[in-house]
């Protein structure tokens, strides 16, 4: 094989996002134009770090779901230069280790916040009005319209927001038409005009509906535990569309079974799928969805395009938008420009 044909061999991008579009899509064509072939390995289940390492060997880029990327990964795959999340969370990636190994980590900021805010309101209404339980009842040829089947109004309630980032602010905007009082706590953000600032304890104890909008960090992991749930108002409901690890699900399940709080709507879980969660049996007091809050059809189109942009930028020697770490050296300055000859692309599927 000649040196010129050898230099034309395409680089590889690992794609674990399950809904990444097909071969004729603009996204695939853009990756091919910068000399990348796709190695598809859709994330259909939890995978071990060893599995992810095996799939990623030889890849300089990755467009990923929530697979684990700890320090061990970066030590085992030194050729990796950019990991682009189809989503806004980065808690499954060791950002410090990525920095030290010169790997940029980009997220799709600004692409799915509206979808998550919509889903948050949907969960509030579904839990308050017991919509899933009513639906199941009607399908079983029942007609239950009295206690204990009656739901509650959203109007007149106090909604507490823990975390006041972009999603929480959009939730507050949507709540404006429901005639609610909104209180919120965030040590790093000033509340928007519709939200009254309160401390952490007041939001926990003063809310009829407690809605979580927290990143998963060492400080927030398990922050809604036994003491916090015990301080919630009797009859309150809990909504979580942020990260599962912030809530102690065993304690929450216990409080729901004992009737100390009325209900919960959760889109995220400490284990996903939540096959061992004690919440699964609480069909009348909980509404559970499969971490789909940010996955509307429109949001997915935007997230995939954003994630593709990040990889293309690095391969073209540009810093991507929304890099959430500071890699040394920056991979977009490390001679990773796409080759002029990008022919001979192939596409593989691995699982």
Fold topology:
Elements: H1 3-7, E1 11-15, H2 26-33, E2 36-40, H3 49-56, E3 61-64, H4 71-76, E4 82-85, H5 95-100, E5 104-106, H6 113-128, H7 131-139, E6 158-162, H8 166-175, E7 181-185, E8 196-197, H9 200-206, E9 209-212, H10 226-231, E10 237-240, H11 249-257, E11 263-266, E12 286-288, H12 297-315, E13 347-349
Parallel strand pairs: 1-2, 1-3, 2-13, 3-4, 4-5, 6-7, 6-9, 7-8, 9-10, 10-11, 11-12
Family: Belongs to the D-isomer specific 2-hydroxyacid dehydrogenase family.
Protein name: Phosphoglycerate dehydrogenase
Biased composition (Basic and acidic residues): 342-351
3D architecture notes:
Residues 322-351 are annotated as: Disordered. This is Phosphoglycerate dehydrogenase. Residues 28-325 form the D-isomer specific 2-hydroxyacid dehydrogenase catalytic domain. This protein has two domains: 3-111 and 296-349, Rossmann fold (3-Layer(aba) Sandwich), CATH 3.40.50; 113-288, NAD(P)-binding Rossmann-like Domain (Rossmann fold, 3-Layer(aba) Sandwich), CATH 3.40.50. The protein is built from twelve helices and 13 strands. The protein has helices spanning 3-7, 26-33, 49-56, 71-76, 95-100, 113-128, 131-139, 166-175, 200-206, 226-231, 249-257, 297-315, and strands at residues 11-15, 36-40, 61-64, 82-85, 104-106, 158-162, 181-185, 196-197, 209-212, 237-240, 263-266, 286-288, 347-349. A seven-stranded parallel beta sheet has the order 8-7-6-9-10-11-12, sandwiched between helices. It has a six-stranded parallel beta sheet with strand order 5-4-3-1-2-13. The longest helix is centred in the C-terminal third of the chain and has 19 residues, at 297-315. The chain is elongated and about 65 Å long.
């Amino acid at each position: 094989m000649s040196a010129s044909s050898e230099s034309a061999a395409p680089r590889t991008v690992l794609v674990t996002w399950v809904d990444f579009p097909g071969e004729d899509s603009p996204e695939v064509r853009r990756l091919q134009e910068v000399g990348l072939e796709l190695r598809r390995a859709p994330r259909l289940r939890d995978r071990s770090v060893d599995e992810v390492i095996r799939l990623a060997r030889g890849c300089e880029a990755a467009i990923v779901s929530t697979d684990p990327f700890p320090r061990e990964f970066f030590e085992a795959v030194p050729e990796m230069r950019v990991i682009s999340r189809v989503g806004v969370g980065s808690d499954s990636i060791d950002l410090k280790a990525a920095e030290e190994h010169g790997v940029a980590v980009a997220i799709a900021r600004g692409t799915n916040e509206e979808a998550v805010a919509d889903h948050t309101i949907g969960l509030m209404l579904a839990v308050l009005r017991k919509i899933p339980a009513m639906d199941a009842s009607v399908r079983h040829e029942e007609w239950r319209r009295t206690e204990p089947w009656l739901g509650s109004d959203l109007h007149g309630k106090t909604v507490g927001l823990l975390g006041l980032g972009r999603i929480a602010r959009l939730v507050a905007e949507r709540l404006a038409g429901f005639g609610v009082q909104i209180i919120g706590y965030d040590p790093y953000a000033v509340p928007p005009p519709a939200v009254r600032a309160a401390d952490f304890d007041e939001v926990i104890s003063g809310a009829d509906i407690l809605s979580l909008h927290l990143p998963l960090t060492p400080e927030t992991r398990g922050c809604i535990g036994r003491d916090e749930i015990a301080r919630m108002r009797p009859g309150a409901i809990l909504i979580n569309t942020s990260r599962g690890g912030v809530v102690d699900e065993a304690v929450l399940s216990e409080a729901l079974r004992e009737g100390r709080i009325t209900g919960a709507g959760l889109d995220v879980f400490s284990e996903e799928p939540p096959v061992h969660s004690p919440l699964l049996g609480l069909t009348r007091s909980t509404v559970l969805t499969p971490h789909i809050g940010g996955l509307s059809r429109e949001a997915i189109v935007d997230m995939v395009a954003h994630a593709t942009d990040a990889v293309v930028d690095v391969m073209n020697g540009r810093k991507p938008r929304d890099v959430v770490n500071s890699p040394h050296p920056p991979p977009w300055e490390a001679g990773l420009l796409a080759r002029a000859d990008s022919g001979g692309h192939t596409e593989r599927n691995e699982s």
